[in-house]
User: Fold this.
Amino acid sequence: MSVGRFIEVIKPGMLTLVQDLGRYGYQQFGVPVAGAMDQFAAAAANLLVGNDRSDAVLEMMMLGPELKIGFKGCVALTGADLGPKINGSPVAMWQTLEVQAGDVLSFGGLKSGLRGYLAVAGGIDTPLVMNSRSTYTKAALGGFEGRALKAGDQVPVGSAEAERPAAMLAIPAELVPVYSVSKTVRIVLGPQNDAFTNAGLQTFLDSVYTVTNECDRMGYRLEGPSIEHVKGGDIISDGIAFGAVQVPGHGKPIIMMADRQTTGGYTKIAGVISVDLPLLAQSKPGDQIRFKRVSLEEAHELLKAREDFYSEISEMAAAQPIDAVVSLSSMNAEIISTRLFRLNVAGAVYDVKVEEVRV
Amino acid sequence: MENELRLAPSGDLALVASFGNEISEALNTKVRGLMLALEKVKVDGIVEMTPTYCSLMIHYDPLRIGYEALCGKVRDTLGALDDIELPEPMVIEIPTLYGGDYGPDLDYVAKHNGLTVDEVIKIHTSGTYRIYMLGFTPGFPYLGGMDERIATPRLETPRTKIAGGSVGIAGAQTGIYPIDSPGGWQIIGRTPVALYDPLSDEPILLKAGESIRFVPIDQATFDRLSREGRSGTTEGRV
Assistant:
């Protein structure tokens, strides 16, 4: 770590954690995957600053932290709109931002969603523990000393290849997720859908469920009509995937999230498909959820489309460097050229605008 | 064997291969066999696997292998299981200091079952316990095979902190707490061996499908093994 390549925590916010895309390979030993709750926002933030999408970012819940940036470089903010500001002025989300040593990043207040992400060019560089930087607080594992950030912490940042990525990027507005308080998430049935009566399955698919106060990184308990089992909600413990919809004997669904235990003994009626998990990760108590059944093939097609989107963004970020001084933090910048990239995502065409500017 | 296999998706990134719905060594042996065989044939697209009592969760990358193709690989591998050489299950010895400060409930377990403390230790150390799966907390083994003569109900009021390494009994089960955690098990002893060491090359000592045996040790041995860390265990492996 070179001198100054750290982020100093002035105020920690409600729950600010170092997360990457998760700790894989240890579920057989009972080690939860953890990782970013909203994997799309975390990956997008990384790609916007020229990182690998699996680099570590900061996940900031509801009330953002106040952070002092110790170096010149690039950052990107994605996920929930926590009202981000740099040196007191509002800044845009879902695009590359240039920062200077001494800049203070703060947050005015939650506007939509629940979890915001901050990626820094070079990545958050806390030690790898079991091949991941993700924080699993229950076992004080990974991240920054296995815990949420506290005031005074100096969070190390890895060295970036350049002070800025080859291109200043923005996710096109049409592709920026909208975190409404009422949403439909798509599921594939299984693995224990046969443990439910037909009436129970209909209840699950036709009802509106409300996110309760018992929702955290481990799971979301929902309130709503009880889902009827054939004979009880207990099974011999089996594996739990991200997004598994568990239904214990009381009939109310619990969606298992990033910090889920690796195994559990309740029937799982369905699994939320990967591309819709970010919508859940951005849900908060009182939000309404409907479930819509899709085929596994459809889920995989959606996943492939998302993968194509990631590839396009990382290719752009790795494009030839622009010689001119680039700064998007200057509102009066003169645009000297604009490059458009056409993305084909899930059958729809989107244009990504890359602006080369002179300050 | 193949006709008992049931395959089902769990979300769009995992496949569950289940062999039945009961806790038995026979089913758990199938789970272990399938996992080891899949590891050996190296199926591209399998990210990792979570073995449990009677099923194997296979986490896969659908960009590298489709669901149906993966199901085919699982069936093929299972069909060829007799021809795939698998390592014999290991028995790992867990040196344990019984009673005293490390086993505050040992006297209660003896009293509850009308036994002497020495009899409880003898019964507990004479068993070989299959590790059906790991879960609950990192490295926590779900063990089978405890002698009913030392079965004891959980504490009425769980303790807020049980030290990592504590060996306990809950109902007809025995287990080891890998890390400090709250819990209601009757604590009868403690092992100096770290079951969980996140910074080690082998962060978790135990593996599903293998077995453990408890070996009684005295305070001096406990202290020596504590100092030596994991090196004391290696010689204990059979």
